[in-house]
Amino acid sequence: MTAAQLLAIMREHGALRVVAKRLAPNDNSKNQIYLGGDYTAIQLLPFGALREDTAVAAGSKRARMKAGVELHWITHDHGLEKATGANLILYPKYPEVRLSGLLKGVHDPAPAEIIVPRHEGRWLFLGITGDGRILAFACRRGTPCADWAETAVAKHRAVPVGVFYEFLVPATGRPDIMTALRRIADQDWIPSKRLDGEGNILPCNSRNCGGYTLEAELGIRPNGRSDSDYDGWEVKQFEVGNLEAPKGGRVTLMTPEPNGGLYVDAGPEAFLRKFGYADRSGIVDRINFGGVHRFGIRHAATKLELALTGWDVDKGAMTRVDGGIELLDAKGAIAARWSFESLLNHWKRKHAKAVYVPSKCALEPRRYRYGKKVLVGVGTDFPLLLAAFACGAAFYDPGIKLENASGKAVLKRRSQFRIQMKDIPALYEKTEWLDLPAMR
After folding, report:
1. Which candidate, 133, 355, 427, 430, has a CA 20 to 30 Å from the CA of 376?
2. Cα 439 from chain centre
């Protein structure tokens, strides 16, 4: 099979991106496929919920997390055959990511003929679809696909992404992300809107419609796999006062609910009644829980301190697979907890490439304009997130409240981790402000 045929087949089966890895001798069905000494694969490859592998966690130096992968091999007749036992395995203490079970349940002998031996020069191609599948194809040294990949790497026509090289397969007729954003920036005020899962345009009239309107202009539909994805780019917007000199405030990173501590054991209402405080704006019978909670600082109103359990601040490394971010009271009791496992399941939605787009909002009716200068971040990693919490750049900034607290109480939850725009570089290996290219 030629490279052109392979890319065409992957495109027909829904692949939006194609990456490839030159396999080392130790990359085989016995030793698993090594996907890197960082978390790049988590941002790149779709997978199910990460879970702690309790079979090895207790007292084992190889404590790990696992997640199912929907991996399908391209067969000789250009169809697909699912590997029923494919898993992504994460060893947080190293860190290290591996792919296992990629031949389990596969009857076509062709993949095994490439993956089982330890021959040099083998290549594994992975196509990534919009619905969370991975399409796999392997070839040995000297075949058209392998020769094409070697040439593309040698002539710098493939972009390194961790241990992979990426060969972009854009949607037919769709411009690249920077061109698409410039088209949007050149427009006047855009009526506030959002897309549903079927691509229908719906009205939008809430504070977060700036992001929804931008996604609608880019044709990004809501999905369970990722946030604001456009050909592998995560797209985020932030509101500014001046589009020519964009300076933004807080940006929401993710909004996970706690999965441990009193918040879970006794329930959010009991948590609020113990650690919340009376509304300070004059609203009667309302209990609030809010304010910026940073690492190592006890909050004046809630009396809780943000802690990182299982993270070595000095070494910048995870020391426990069962660690997490915690809110501790004065006696050290856990008021709320987010395990690393749950945070990784949210953080996997972050992409290795992100673009932050400034916006301005006007009301009556609600509408938006977008800037021609954007912030680009490349190379995010979960340890960078934890390090950002440790230095105070990232923080917990909830907006939880209990209305009609003395009667039939109404609870409104909003747990969110945030960061100031000026601190976004803490999350990426490289960031820079770019002027979007002028339209020709």
Report:
1. 133
2. 30
Residues in the chain: 440
**pLDDT of the residue at 301:** 96
- The C-alpha angle 388, 48, 250, rounded to 5 degrees, equals 30
Tokens of 278: 């009376």
d(CA 429, CA 313): 18
Please state, rounded to an integer, the average pLDDT across all residues of the chain: 90
- 429 close to 373: Cβ distance less than 8 angstroms: no
Read off the tokens for 387: 């390090």
Q: How confident is the model at residue 298 (pLDDT cuts 50, 70, 90)?
A: very high
Report the candidate in 413, 433, 424 with the shortest Cα–Cα distance to residue 384.
Answer: 424
Of 109-123, 198-212, 213-227, 299-313, least confident by mean pLDDT is 213-227
Q: What are phi and psi of 98, to 5 degrees?
A: -135, 160
CA angle, 185 as apex, 368 and 44 as ends, to 5°? Answer: 95
Separation CA 113–CA 145 (nearest Å)? 16
Instruction: Look at phi and psi of residue 275 and say left if phi exceeds 0, alpha if psi is from -120 to 50, else beta.
Output: alpha
**DSSP string covering 324-350, please?**
EEEEE-TTS-EEEEEEHHHHHHHHTTS
Give the residue ranges of DSSP H helices in 105-173: 109-115, 144-154
The sign of the CA dihedral 47, 428, 14, 222 is positive
Burial class (CB in 10 A: 0-12, 13-18, 19+), 38: buried
Least Cα distance to 7 among 111, 127, 158, 123 occurs for 127
Amino acid letter, 253: L
| Backbone phi, psi, residue 156, to 5° | 60, 35
Q: How many CB atoms lie within 10 A of CB 290?
A: 18
**86-96 pLDDT per residue, tens:** 999 998 878 88
Q: What is the pTM of this model?
A: 0.82
Distance between CA atoms of 417 and 397, rounded to whole angstroms? 6
Residue 62 clears pLDDT 60, i.e. is over it: yes
CA dihedral (364, 248, 301, 346) positive or negative: positive
350-373: per-residue pLDDT in tens? 777 899 999 999 999 999 999 999
